[in-house]
Amino acid sequence: AVVSTQSTGSTEWVFESRKEGTSVYHSPTEQKIFWVAMFSSSIIWLILLIKNLLTFSLTWVVVDVTAMVLNSANLYGYIKCRRDAKAKVQGAVGSFLGRQLFNQMVSGGAEGSTQQQNR
User: Fold this and answer.
1) Average pLDDT by stretches of 10, the chain with 119 residues
2) What pLDDT, on the 0 to 100 scale, is given for residue 71?
3) Nearest alpha carbon to residue 69 among 53, 49, 83
4) CA distances from 53 to 33, 49, 67, 70, 78 (A)
5) Mind giving me the DSSP string for 21-57?
6) Which pLDDT score, from 0 to 100, does residue 81 have?
7) Which residues pair with 5 in a beta bridge?
8) Would you state the pLDDT for residue 92?
9) If 57 and its partner were Cys, which of 50, 52, 71, 73 is the partner (CB 3.0–4.6 Å)?
10) What is the dihedral of CA 87, 88, 94, 100, to 10 degrees?
11) Kind and range of the H or E run holding 14
């Protein structure tokens, strides 16, 4: 994700995903490992936060909270990118199917009118 600052002072998050046609391929196993690591690290920081709260280790609580905030922002960005990429794929598939249906209707309609004129 890229954060750009507008001239008005507000920030805008721009989520980028892999460009179509690139030769980079990630196997389903690699994807599962990535997502398990992302979610498990959040869970580990939560467990450490609870442990340090119960043992009154306030200096470590600060570290845990900071790590959870940073990890959560990272996780949020990756989830947002994944949803955006899926929406792009679904839009492309829908557009392709719509064009195919339109072409089928146009070519089918032209053939039908030609057949009626030949009779």
Assistant:
1) 66 67 74 90 94 93 94 87 67 63 66 51
2) 93
3) 49
4) 30, 6, 15, 19, 29
5) T------HHHHHHHHHHHHHHHHHHHHHHHHHHHTT-
6) 77
7) 11
8) 60
9) 52
10) -170
11) strand 11-14
Bridge partners (DSSP) of residue 2 are: 14
Cα–Cα distance for residue pair 119/105, rounded to 1 Å:
22
State whether residue 17 is helix, strand or coil. Answer: coil
| Residue 68 φ then ψ, to 5° | -65, -40
Say if CB 41 and CB 72 are below 8 A apart: no
Tell me how far apart the alpha carbons of residues 74 and 79 are, in angstroms, rounded to a whole number: 9
Residue 10: predicted pLDDT? 76
The whole-model pTM stands at 0.54
**Which pLDDT score is estimated for 27?**
81
